[in-house]
Amino acid sequence: MSAAMPVIYLSHGAPPLADDPVWPTELAAWARQLPKPRAVLVISAHWEAAPMTIGATTTQPLVYDFWGFPQRYYQVRYPAPGAPELAAEVRGLLSGAGYGTADDPGRGLDHGAYVPLMEMYPEADVPVLQVSMPTLDPRELYAIGRRLAPLRQAGVLIVGSGFFTHNLREMNPMSGPTDAPPPSWSVEFDQWGNEVLSTGDIDAVLDFQSKAPAPGRAHPRIEHFAPLFVSLGAGEEAGVPRTTVQGFWYGLAKRSIQLG
After folding, report:
1. Is the pLDDT of residue 174 over 60?
2. pLDDT at residue 71 above 80?
3. pLDDT confidence of 109, banded at 50, 70, 90?
């Protein structure tokens, strides 16, 4: 039996990620260190729908779910193959645990999926399936991740895609992506998250709203932290998470982790 694939959570960035002087190189180097996946399963902060909804299993137009950017960002293409076999596996794993699923065959990849994958697999040669988050409850998402864990043995890279801190109202886009000191609430939350993850204190992560410093400023709404819970559940047997990308982008923590 082949070794299980790792599980990752990444901070995915906005469409201008492609223009960042550092981040694309970090993602590309990370991908080179991973085994080549048979397929990628993405849980993105930008798709919430209950029950868990399975996106397109054929190549569809991208979902440009952002506003106010230069026109070139709406002309990006990422024609990754669909993953119908993976979709069937996801349905089977979830239905066996009593979770319902739905299908949205016309729903293409949103920017939480294609923006990082363009840097990690620029040839668009790895099949990709995106599924929705059916809830934002940390423990329910962790349980869903545990149900998806067998996909690791089948060569599937499970990707939770969000942002380690995410408060757009307090971003300062005039400061530049990396040269201004990040705000204290973002630094403190990031340091706390690194500590609890590196010691394997998953309960603290799941209960971050009562245990982390400034959780309401780091995440006024938790959808960008929530994909982490799925990744932690899927990687429960893979050991203690380790940081692969760190630092700040316009004051937001871009910490990303790998299990396994």
Report:
1. no
2. yes
3. very high
Cis omega (within 30 of 0) on the bond before 177? no
Mean pLDDT of 5-32: 92
Rounded CA gap, 84 and 249, in Å?
Answer: 35
pTM for this model (two decimals) = 0.95
Sheet holding 52-54, edge to edge: 101-103, 52-54, 128-133, 39-48, 156-162, 7-11, 256-259, 242-245
Please give the mean pLDDT across all residues of the chain.
Answer: 94
Of residues 68, 97, 218, 80, the one with CA closest to residue 157 = 80
